[in-house]
Design brief:
alpha/beta; Cobalt-precorrin-4 Transmethylase, domain 1; Methyltransferase, Cobalt-precorrin-4 Transmethylase, Domain 2; 3 domains; 5-stranded mixed beta sheet; 42% helix; 18% strand; elongated; transferase; S-adenosyl-L-methionine; rRNA processing
């Protein structure tokens, strides 16, 4: 193999979803690096690829600063380095970004052996429009930050793709239904390519009700269809602002509501100030 950094996609579930080129690179690289070395070693065993004493270096969010110099040193020595995600495509909700940036800035060749990605697999099975989509990764865990992000995503004219923890799925669906509308189409794609694969298609409201009672298990991709953009009445704006002002400042409420409905922020901010004064609260802006 020529010297350089190789980004190798690995299966998201079914071990047979690996490419022949990926196996060639895993067998021929001088150095192997992975977000989870245990997962990589299992994959190598399944496909009969021997390590033969080659370094297998862990590279993840918690040790990147320490591990990256080792990999950069290998590249400086003219060695071939393969980097793998725990599952799926490197750099898609994966810590490999800083490694790629360091390698390219140092002038080392960087290439990819493309393959599985849960986001694209979910989109493929969803039945939602795929001509335009936005991958938004994981939502923030804090309720306020999560709701703000959902409000910002609501008017985006594209199918939305999110990753979510099964423990938080019910709460996220309930928040999305409240912010984006209960009738908005959505899909929960779970355990893709695995034995218990499930793709549930319904409205946000119906999915929220289902997962409020039935706990999800396994890896989850949440897809939300593009919402309609009807004319928004002043009454709807007022109701949304009144609710937002219970927990947010005037500024944050205006940001949230204007993003949610896809309308200009300035008049919403002015209305939020008026509602705050009418309610007797203190305007912290």
């Amino acid at each position: 193999m020529a010297p350089g950094l190789y980004l190798v996609a690995t299966p998201i579930g079914n071990a047979r979803d690996i490419t022949l080129r990926a196996l060639d690179l895993l067998a021929g690289a001088d150095v192997l690096a992975a977000e989870d070395t245990r997962s990589l070693r299992r994959l190598l065993e399944i496909h009969g690829v021997a390590l033969n004493g080659r370094p297998c270096i862990a590279y993840h969010d918690h040790n990147g600063a320490k591990a990256r110099p080792k990999l950069m040193a290998a590249l400086e020595q003219g060695r071939s380095v393969v980097y793998c995600s725990e599952a799926g495509t490197p750099l898609v909700s994966d810590p490999g970004f800083d490694l790629v940036r360091a390698a390219t800035e140092a002038g080392h060749p960087v290439t990819t052996a493309p393959g599985p990605a849960a986001a694209i697999a979910g989109l493929t099975l969803s039945g939602l429009p795929s001509d335009r989509f936005l991958f938004a990764g994981f939502l923030p865990q804090a309720k306020g930050a999560r709701d703000k992000t959902l409000a910002e995503l609501a008017p985006v004219p594209a199918t939305l793709i999110l990753y979510e923890s099964p423990r938080r799925l019910g709460a996220t669906l309930a928040a999305a239904a409240r912010i984006m509308g209960e009738t908005r189409p959505a899909v929960v794609a779970r355990e893709l390519t695995k034995r218990f694969e499930e793709v549930r298609r319904d409205s946000l409201g119906a999915l929220a009700a289902h997962y409020d009672e039935a706990a999800a298990k396994g890896e989850v991709v949440l897809l939300i269809g593009r919402g309609d953009s009807p004319k928004v009445s002043e009454e709807e704006i007022d109701r949304a602002l009144t609710e937002a002002l219970r927990d947010m400042s005037v500024r944050d409420a205006a940001d949230s509501v204007s993003s949610r409905f896809g309308v200009s922020r300035r008049p919403v901010y002015q209305r939020a100030m008026a509602l705050e004064r009418e309610g007797g609260g203190d305007d912290d802006d």
